[in-house]
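Practice problem: predict the structure.
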Amino acid sequence: MIIERNKYLSRLLDSRLNGLVKIVTGIRRSGKSFLLFNIFKQRLLNEGVDAGHIIEMQFDDFANKRYRVPEVFYNYVKERIKDGRVYYIILDEVQLLGDFEDVLNGLMHIENVDIYVTGSNARFLSKDIVTEFRGRGLQIHISPLSFAELMTFYNGSKEDALEHYLRYGGLPQVALQPNDEYRSTVLKDLLKETYIIDILERNRVKNSAELEELLAMLASVIGGLTNPQKLSNTFKTVKNVSIGAPTLKSYIDYFCDAFLVEQVNRYDVKGKRYIGTPLKYYFSDLGLRNALLNFRQVEKTHLMENLIYNELRGRGYNVDVGVVPYNGKNAQGVSFRTQLEVDFVCNKGSQRLYVQSALALPTQEKINQETNSLRRIDDGFPKMVVVGDHTIGSHDENGILFINIYDFLMQ
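Answer:
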């Protein structure tokens, strides 16, 4: 089965001939290679590009081992260029090519080439890979399947699909498995044999047990505030292991560099400034998060919050956790100061959107609780509460939109 990734295909098509190396990044097994070598290539052929003007190379193929030598590959490409028409160069596992940064920069000096690359080890997937190309690279980040993409082939109701998605995530290889047993097995194998090993090898980490335990701790606290010092204290009290906050901070950076986890800062909406720790952490794929915990902690409230975060990021928003300072008086007339939380403050260019996640709103009291922070923001930007049931979309008297999770994910 071919899962069309139209959003990413459009980004590739829009970036053609822009003078930059298109670098497809993302968590491993998210579909980067398939996007380039199947979907994008077929689109080029359908548009009339001659097959001889598509130069492709998969460096992990043993038959192509000799092309990993920089001079050999560079000369191979030069020999294939016969005329002045555009040649599309599509490369996979490019990190296996020796001095690949220099080779690609050299190829960029050829006027009629357009270059697209991807790779699958942790070094290439590092979030700062674009800097390797000295400002001549454009990163196109691909995420696991969105819920809307899953629904294009899921055989069942949207309610069942959501339960499936919250439990097994959106890695294409997992989503296409025939049953839940296979999905669980594939997720656990990928976690151990792919993601963990990559992080250990790239960063030369010796304490693999502590690193894996930390990842599991982060999986347990999605949607909650924490920081390296709190995690260090947990290691000491629960595991009776002394591991310093700086070391844990380095480990968390490794997870973020590999796109396995994203760190979310807190933002003072009224003060218009960022606040330090504690922070929040969300997983790029919920299936991997659940597999880390052996599918034991599947609280829908936290999973839905992580899902909404991933959806907003997939739509191109920069996302922070919002804080709204509030001064008030209690029933006894005593003044107090507190901080109200906005789940997500979302920015994209001049656009801003405030989003709150609520599994259910059974009472007016619960509605007031979920909208308390939103009602105290007066900057005029849209405000939304995503509800985990079949709430009919509507605005309240404060202009806050209430939308159910299905409509939000499918829009």
